[in-house]
Design goal:
This protein is mainly beta. The chain has one domain. Helix content is 11%, strand content 37%. It has eleven helices and 30 strands. The strands form seven sheets. The chain has a six-stranded mixed sheet. It has a four-stranded antiparallel sheet with strand order 4-5-6-7, with no helix packed on it. A hairpin with a 5-residue loop joins strand 22 and strand 23. The protein is globular, with a radius of gyration of 22 Å.
Length: 582
């Protein structure tokens, strides 16, 4: 194993260990402030896989909100606290005197984004690419990099010019059509589209950036919800999280731009969500787009007659080439992750979201993914990955479960559903172009109830769509290592490269660095790190579901008391989801 430890200021050491395990590189934050949290990885440039020089984007946070919270995606925060009441209070209030490790000050800072109540907005995030701090472009003060398109950064930022969010592609701002109070836009992915209209010779060839853009005030209302989200008095109320359910104050549509960033085009039609109504905030978003122009994300359905009664539904946006300059889209819900739950699925399944889609197509379990046919036909076996969250108890937990979906056959799989003890909760973040999936799931041996209890530890995983094999990254990391050499726990795998010429892939993951073996065993005294792991073709072919890590096999999983640092810094969508009590 090649182990390299890097601080944000530069390289510190290079340590060579046994070659029996995967190659791992660590980026360790040097926190200079009292309330700096991170690093957390947010993107990786997979196009550099062949050269072995993987570029990744990380960010540190001023306040310790969960890494997945996104005010442009209410499904990431609009759920009630299902843990023990003391845990919920700790999450809201924090443990520090300045509350910087609690959700309360993060919410208060959002209230200061547009208005002037109680001081001014503080830039929340500092973005870095390969440990080099990224200077904000002319627009964003606080910026989040969501994708790397080669050397170009894709993401969104908050502006000093009273724009609460603006998407960007490099230094180009991505403009929404509705710009009242600055409007709202986000960017999540970019691709070079080269697709021909099926049965013709008409080809569309252009760079597209996808995300979301504001189309009107929330639910065609006035500025009321916007002001409650960004410009009202802070009110230390944990029961409704200071009206966070009003955010983002706009109705948003899944959108795309070319490199000029001129006003967004809509993947859905300007006001065409999966359903509409008189209460919910309506949002659609595209998280990923492939080189054939197929995009995936979610759209809102109003399920309940309340401000927070909208639910995310996994969606695919299918293209049609109209001319050499124009793509049109049809939005289709990926229904099985919802309807597979039974007749009253709206009571059982809370949200479904599509996260990523392959450029290539699935052929068989014994062969690599093949190049797409280059047309806009939806009879191609692109594989989509996503997540669904439960509204009812599953194995004593409000579980999240990742799924895969074949665009051609509509086959939907739930890879860990039959293994509830070792993976009652699982989330996917990325799939590469040979069907290798990464994400996170309940750690090995984690079986304690989370409903009215405490969160389970999460551990990063890899899963092969072709062979249906999976493994924990922790097992690949410490296989064959002496206990004294084991120091990292992989928590959330965020991205994965395509195979290089030798069939090797690179995974980037959030993780924790333990200073000694006792701390590792007791999960105490850790430092957040970002790890990249190179996994060989041989290791991929021989993934094992049993533990290959002797220290983890012998580990006693009984809890010895949790710390606030672990609870806040462990970034898991499911375990910290909240719904507002009224």
């Amino acid at each position: 194993m090649l182990l390299k430890k890097t601080k944000l200021a530069g390289i510190i050491s290079l340590v060579l260990c046994t070659t029996a395990v995967a190659s791992t590189t660590a980026i360790v934050v040097d926190s200079s402030g009292a309330h700096d949290f991170g690093p957390y990885v947010s993107a990786m440039d997979t196009s550099s896989a062949a050269t072995g020089t993987m570029t990744s984007a990380t960010y540190t946070q001023k306040y310790a909100q969960q890494f997945s919270y996104d005010i442009g995606a209410p499904w990431t925060y609009n759920e009630y606290c299902v843990s023990d009441s003391d845990v919920c209070k700790m999450f809201w209030n924090g443990s520090k005197t300045d509350n910087s490790d609690g959700l309360f000050v993060w919410r208060r800072n959002i209230l200061n984004t547009y208005g002037d109540y109680n001081g001014s907005y503080e830039s929340e995030t500092t973005s870095s690419v390969n440990t080099i701090e990224v200077s904000p472009a002319s627009l964003p003060l606080s910026r989040k990099i969501t994708a790397l398109d080669g050397a170009v950064e894709v993401g969104y930022g908050t502006s000093a010019g009273k724009i609460v969010r603006r998407g960007y592609y490099g230094t180009t701002s991505l403009l929404p059509e509705f710009t009242e109070n600055g409007g709202f836009s986000s960017a999540y992915d970019a691709a070079d589209i080269n697709v021909t209209k099926s049965g013709t010779s008409t080809t569309f060839n252009n760079k597209l950036i996808v995300g979301q853009a504001s189309v009107q005030w929330s639910n065609a209302d006035d500025t009321g919800r916007f002001n409650r989200c960004f410009n009202s008095a802070a009110n230390d109320s944990r029961t409704d999280y200071d009206q966070l359910y009003n955010c983002p104050g706009f109705d948003l549509q899944a959108s795309f731009w070319d490199e000029t960033g001129i006003t967004a085009s809509y993947l859905t039609g300007k006001t065409n969500w999966l359903s509409t109504g008189s209460y919910a905030t309506f949002i659609a978003n595209a998280y990923a787009i492939n080189t054939s122009g197929f995009a995936v994300g979610f759209s809102t359905q109003q399920i309940y007659q309340s401000t927070s009664g909208g639910r995310a539904r996994a969606t695919i946006f299918k293209p049609t080439v109209e001319s050499a300059d124009v793509l049109s889209y049809m939005m289709t819900e990926i229904t099985k992750p919802k309807t597979d739950a039974g007749g009253d699925y709206n009571e059982i399944i809370r949200d479904t979201v599509a996260i990523d889609i392959t450029d290539k197509v699935y052929v068989s379990a014994s062969s690599s993914f093949a190049t797409a046919d280059g047309t806009d036909s939806d009879s191609q076996a692109f594989i989509v990955v996503g997540n669904r969250t439960y509204n009812q108890l599953q194995n004593r937990s409000y579980a999240t479960e990742f799924f895969t979906y074949d665009v051609k056959t509509q086959e939907t799989r739930y890879p860990f559903k039959t293994n509830p003890i070792k993976g009652a909760s699982s989330q996917v973040s990325k799939i590469n172009n040979d069907g290798i999936v990464v994400g996170w799931r309940d750690d090995r041996g984690e079986t304690s109830p989370t409903a009215q209890g405490s969160p389970r530890f999460q551990s990063a995983f890899i899963y092969d769509y072709k062979t249906k094999k999976s493994a924990y990254l922790d097992d690949l990391y410490c296989k064959g290592m002496d206990d004294s050499d084991v120091k990292y726990r992989f928590s959330n795998a965020i991205s994965i490269s395509d195979p290089d010429a030798n069939g090797n892939v690179v995974v980037v993951s959030n993780a924790f660095d333990y200073k000694n073996i006792d701390n590792y065993k007791n999960r105490l005294g850790s430092t957040p790190v970002v790890l990249t792991m190179t996994i060989s073709a041989d290791e991929l072919a021989n993934l094992s579901t049993t533990s290959q890590c002797p220290i983890n096999t012998e580990e006693n999983y009984s809890r010895s008391g949790g710390s606030m640092n672990w609870f806040i810094l462990l970034p898991t969508m499911l375990l910290l989801f909240r719904r507002f009590k009224r």
